[in-house]
Design a protein that fits this description.
The chain is mainly beta. The chain contains 2 helices and 24 strands.
């Protein structure tokens, strides 16, 4: 299958805000690699979390989770987690484990909750049972505001910070009537949120003293972020975001900052028309540190912090959906200085990824596969 992102022309050509903001120098990994498929029996996987013993916890959109052995064999299937809605668009999405999982067995996941003809993104938690066949004492800790009649772009990536609180991405629902909520402080749509394990706003958030602002909001102007990771070398929060047609972004997220959607973008509407005023830069709005046009549709990101493949240490890896590849980005002084395309010959949509203790990259695809990318 061809790499569509490589052969399609850009939807629009903007002048970058700075040199190196797009089309970084191509690079090639020198370390010999081995690519293997550990499983091809997954059912629409969405989230991937590594358990402390090296096994894999994977969420599946249809309403289940599975636990795979280190070798990729499905051993446990967890069902009846959250009610799956009728749309078939968004169901169970991201999943992660508590930092103290070895002691408390707590799992956190995002799912789409349906309220009659409307839907919203919800975050729930519960304890994995001793036999690992169910999740007990399920509690919904957060519901997005507002519910919407569409079924697209819920966001839902979330990660724990060093203090045990959660950063959460919230999409804008891909509606012309909802996208401006990404700029409104009374709505959680189109935002990065910062909440506790109980779903409360983390104290002293950047908008806590603003009238009518939701105190859990950490950053605004987000279209739909499917990638979220903390850079282990700097402690900064990094995000990968869908553009409209073109303009997919990598951002470093800072508290209280505005990342521009839908006022600025390096992309266009899907029909080729300009978004809003058709501008990519505006005072008071943050620039992405990197963008792609044409789109790659970033589905996930992960920092490589292992010494097993030394030349990868500190690099950011991006799983592309429409781009059908795993992208390696070399970072220097918070800028992208090199880009490599991996697995572009597989024809897969790479949905989530994690770095194992063995220094390998593990990634799940919409086609139901679990890949391992490791040193030969």
């Amino acid at each position: 299958m061809p790499n569509l992102a490589a052969i399609q022309p850009p939807s629009i050509v903007y002048k970058p805000a700075f040199q190196g903001q797009t089309q970084a120098k191509p690079v090639i990994t020198k370390t010999p690699l081995v690519i293997s498929i550990l499983s091809d029996k997954l059912e629409r996987p969405w989230g991937l979390s590594l358990l402390p013993d090296g096994r894999f916890l994977i969420s599946q959109k249809g309403g289940t989770m599975v636990i795979l052995s280190k070798d990729g064999i499905i051993g446990k299937k967890i069902s009846h987690i959250s009610k799956v809605g009728p749309s078939g668009k968004g169901e169970i999405l991201d999943v992660t484990i508590d930092p103290d999982f070895e002691n408390n067995k707590m799992i956190y996941w995002a799912y789409t909750e349906f309220q009659d003809t409307r839907s919203l993104l919800a975050i729930a938690k519960g304890k994995l049972s001793t036999d690992e066949n169910k999740i007990e004492n399920i509690t919904v800790i957060y519901r997005a505001t507002n519910a919407y009649s569409g079924y697209l772009q819920y966001g839902s990536r979330f990660i724990f910070d060093k203090n045990g609180n959660l950063f959460v991405t919230m999409g804008d629902h891909s509606g012309f009537d909802t996208r401006m909520q990404a700029q409104y402080l009374n709505s959680s749509l189109g935002k990065i949120l910062h909440i506790t394990k109980f779903g409360e706003a983390v104290a002293n958030g950047p908008f806590v003293n603003q009238i009518n602002a939701r105190p859990e909001i950490y950053a605004v102007g987000i279209r739909n972020a499917y990638g979220l990771a903390i850079n282990p070398q700097t402690g900064d929060l990094w995000e990968a975001e869908f553009g409209p047609k073109g303009g997919d972004e990598i951002n470093i997220i800072k508290p209280g900052k505005n990342y521009g959607w839908p006022v600025i973008t390096y992309g266009t509407e899907y029909n080729g028309e300009k978004v809003g005023d058709g501008i990519a830069q505006k005072d008071g709005m943050e620039q992405p540190i990197y963008y792609w046009n044409p789109s790659i549709s970033p589905g996930c990101i992960a920092f490589y912090n292992s010494s097993v493949i030394e030349e990868w240490k500190g690099n950011l890896f991006v799983g592309a959906l429409s781009g059908s590849q795993v992208i390696r980005l070399i970072i220097k002084n918070d800028k992208i200085v090199g880009e490599e395309k991996l697995l572009a010959d597989k024809g897969e949509r790479f949905r989530d990824m994690a770095i194992g203790k063995d220094g390998a990259i593990y990634t799940v695809t919409d086609g139901g596969k679990l890949y391992r990318i490791g040193k030969k």
